[in-house]
């Protein structure tokens, strides 16, 4: 029995796809303001005292074998998100009180709207515009824009 009879050398049923038929997926960059607000919301709802373990105390030990170990990418991403969240919190706190409440209410951090004479949708849009301008100038969050 030859290999041709077993089917090893059969040519697959492939055809060339024209460029017009090929699906094109365009890269869509995430909005920087939405990313900052998501990191801020996680930072606000999370526990800020998570870095009290052995990994934090690594710099105080005299053992040089710890320095050669590779850094965990998930831990590094979490630390970067925490820095973005803290920077976003500082920028939010520099806004006016009505804008602060609008950001908190829009991100579901609070359920109370303390300004009954103001329209939440209009104030939230103005607050996000003001916050966007501040976050673009911040060194910790400017890379996201």
Outline the structure in words.
With 145 residues, the protein is mainly alpha-helical. Helices cover 49% and strands 0% of the residues. The protein contains six helices and no strands. The protein has helices at 3-6, 32-45, 65-68, 73-93, 97-106, 120-137. Helix 2 crosses helix 4 (73-93) and helix 5 crosses helix 6 (120-137). The longest helix is centred in the middle third of the chain and has 21 residues, at 73-93. The mean pLDDT is 81.
Structural key phrases:
145 residues, mainly alpha, 6 helices
Produce the secondary structure layout.
Elements: H1 3-6, H2 32-45, H3 65-68, H4 73-93, H5 97-106, H6 120-137
Q: Briefly, what is this?
A:
By secondary structure, the protein is mostly helical. It has helices spanning 3-6, 32-45, 65-68, 73-93, 97-106, 120-137.
């Amino acid at each position: 029995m030859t290999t041709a009879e077993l089917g090893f050398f059969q040519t697959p049923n492939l055809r060339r796809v024209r460029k017009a038929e090929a699906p094109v997926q365009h890269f869509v960059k995430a909005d920087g303001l939405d990313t900052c607000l998501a990191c801020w919301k996680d930072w606000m709802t999370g526990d800020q005292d998570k870095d009290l373990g052995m990994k934090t105390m690594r710099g105080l030990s005299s053992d040089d074998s710890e320095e050669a170990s590779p850094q965990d990418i998930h831990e590094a991403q979490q630390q970067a998100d925490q820095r973005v969240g803290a920077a976003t919190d500082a920028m939010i706190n520099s806004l006016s009180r009505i804008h602060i409440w609008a950001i908190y209410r829009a991100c579901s951090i609070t359920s109370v709207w303390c300004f009954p004479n103001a329209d939440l949708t209009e104030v939230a849009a103005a607050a996000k515009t003001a916050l966007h301008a501040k976050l673009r100038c911040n060194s910790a969050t400017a890379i996201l824009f």
